[in-house]
Amino acid sequence: MLIxxxxxxxxxxxxxxxxxxxAVALGLLLVVGLHLTSLF
Length: 40
What we know:
Elements: H1 2-11, H2 13-36
């Protein structure tokens, strides 16, 4: 199983940074959206 995970990460290493950036952006939008209600 460890070998399969390692090979999966190696195959997707080109898009892994973009996927992580997208996940961070979605989390940031969620936090900002939830805090906007306290401003109004």
